[in-house]
Amino acid sequence: MTPATWIEWGRNRHIHGPLAEAGREPAKHAKGPRGRASAPRDKRETRVPFAFFGVLRGLAMLLLACAARAHEFGDDYADTAASAQALTLNASRNGKIEVDPDADWFLFQASPLKRYTVTVTAGTLWDSTLDVRMSDRTTRRAQASSVPTPPSRVTFDHFGPPTTFYLRVAGFADFTTGTYSVVVNESNFPDLDGDGMDDVWEVSNFGSTNHPAGEDADLDGLNNRLEFLSGTSPTNPVSGLFITGTETGSNSVSVHFDVQPFRYYALSVCTDLVSGTWQVVQMLTNAQFAGERVLEDSMTPLAIQRFYRIECYLGSSVVGGPLQGATDLGGGWRRLAWLGDFIDRGDGWIYHAEHGWMYYVGTSPASIWFWSARLGWVWTSDTIYPFFWSDPRQAWLWYYRGTGNGAGGWFYNYGTGANVWL
User: Fold this and answer.
1) Sheet of strand 163-171: strand arrangement
2) Which of 188, 255, 270, 394 is most buried, with most CB under 10 Å away?
3) Domain 81-187, what architecture?
4) Do 149 and 128 form a contact (C-beta atoms < 8 A)?
């Protein structure tokens, strides 16, 4: 036998063990029917057997396990952006938040200069939250909830190249579950006078829609439509898309300029304004930030004269885009008869079935610059491909179609007269 064990529950105390059997328990306690001490009962208190707590704990663990399994096998949509379900524009999709803490992820493809309205309407779900992310799946583009006023809805305009946006739908509180519907509506911004500028933006800046697109109201060198596209003020000559300064380092040049929220920028360099070619050295996708940003040119030798320009890049919104007319093959894959099969990530990067990862810049299929780690900057077009002009080699390359595997391919270098694997 072990020494006496004291167990307390409220103000009642019990003794079990040799002390009780030896009769050395406090005298005020009376003997129970089996010779053990029995404390007086307090009618205001209840003694609960310890086994009861074990039952409760077991039930709780069972419920948690069941919830986890239900979540694993009963979920209708992916819980991560990496496995997001594609939505068809202007078509409603039904969903369900099954268990705490379920969240459903979707994606949709956005086109330049379009307005998007995302709406989550509750069915049996009490309240909902909506989170719209940019193509990196992390940067927030917009968010809303159905509290205090349903439904959850956001509206925004897309000023940039074709890209992918991600949606996260969840309950407002972690414990809320139920059904809902989600829809992404695509539309044009209001432009009754057909000048390529949002009527609401015109009225906000000019008081009317009577100012033409080609007018430079603030005489800063940018016409009204360019100010609209770049997000700058058409009535403030200090507000514009300008290079504000440069700094020369030991092996690079830093270029300063002002940015506006949710715009896409390209920094280009040229060494001869008469006969030279502009070459993109850096691209920038800007999110919520407004103010000065810095891009660096470390590609051009500092001993060579350099000219820089900064552009607000709209991708295919200019003249249809360099990869226009691609056929959707499903699963993110697209096909151009002249270029082949590729996945367009929506931020300037494509994965080509034969060439691998490539970055592209251009405004039409008639002139496209591609960059890859193996090729460097190369130029081609829909009528010249599979011929490339190689900027780092200063020579023409001819690609042997079908030899690439995503990690390289065979080219004929007209400068050296040899076949090379690039």
Assistant:
1) 85-86, 103-110, 163-171, 128-133, 140-145
2) 255
3) Sandwich (2.60)
4) no
